[in-house]
Amino acid sequence: MAIVTGSCRFGLWYVHVTWQDNLVYRVRFAREGLDGPVPGEILRYCAGRPADLSSLESVATEGESTSTKIYRAVRAIPCGETATYGEIARIVGTVPRVVGSAMARNPTPIVVPCHRVVAKTGLGGFSPDLEIKEALLDMERHVCLDAAHQEMRGINR
DNA sequence: CCAGGCTTGGAGG
DNA sequence: CCTCCAAGCCTGG
Question: For residue A154, is pLDDT > 60?
Answer without folding.
Answer: yes
